[in-house]
Amino acid sequence: MSTQPPAGDALDSLFGALSDPTRRLLLQRLLAKGPATATVLAEPLPVSRQAVVKHLQAMEGAGLVTPQREGREVRYRATPERLASAVGWLLDAGGSWDRRIDRLRKR
Amino acid sequence: MSTQPPAGDALDSLFGALSDPTRRLLLQRLLAKGPATATVLAEPLPVSRQAVVKHLQAMEGAGLVTPQREGREVRYRATPERLASAVGWLLDAGGSWDRRIDRLRKR
DNA sequence: TCCTTGTGCAATTGAATGGTTGCACCTCAA
DNA sequence: TTGAGGTGCAACCATTCAATTGCACAAGGA
Fold first, then answer.
1. Phi, psi values for residue B77, rounded to 5°
2. E-state strands within B1-107
3. CA A41 to chain centre
4. pLDDT tens-place string over residues B55-77
5. Residues B79/B64, Cβ–Cβ less than 8 Å
6. What is the pTM of this model?
7. Do B84 and A93 touch (CB under 8 A)?
8. DSSP B9
9. Alpha-carbon distance B6 to A44, whole Å?
10. How far, in Å, is the CA of A70 from the C1' of nucleotide C10?
11. Contact, B31 vs B80, CB < 8 A?
12. Given strand A36-37, what is the order of strands in its sheet?
């Protein structure tokens, strides 16, 4: 039930969210170093805080991230469960067409 | 080397290609029923042939499909090897944060 | 109480995207 | 040789998207 039925729309926003390098970076950063606020996340990046906020909102829409208010700040936490949906679709589509996928299946 | 080096750009176009429902559909169709021309692929769809051509070009840019001229037609063949790149990145990013991914890893 | 810091909201801009139509060109079969 | 079917190219349009800026507002700390 959980890794199975990513309805079309969900896959749209999911893959869409992953198609941007900044967003992939944000996701990796959140996964590696834990929750953080948009302001902090924007610091090392060459874009404004607002830009980061928008990216995070897109990611939230895709279910990749969850905002959590704490006092006057908002920490975003990575919720990578949805990544499994993407993997699921890919394995499903790729099926047994590619040896490389079979290899990944079993690794 | 093969499932490894999805340089940023490659992932952009790859996930980007997968973020559109029509393109996912085309890919599945090509995988399921083998190579076909843009004209044929467009028939059951609610969009024009040219729209399909553009989608196929985007997919070609992502390495998901390869055009092959045969006489006066062009058959597009699915080349799902790149899907492994996507899966690779997802597993890498997801790491061991999600039980569901671990499950998929071993299935 | 002030003042600073972090968020949220809105308007704007420029570029990318998805789609269409029209037409020229090439290939092949009568 | 003529005509029909399949492609390719280009212009165009509407929508979405990434990003910026400016400003108002909430929450803590001095």
1. -115, 135
2. 36-37, 65-70, 73-78
3. 15
4. 999 999 999 999 999 999 999 99
5. yes
6. 0.89
7. no
8. H
9. 23
10. 25
11. yes
12. A36-37, A73-78, A65-70
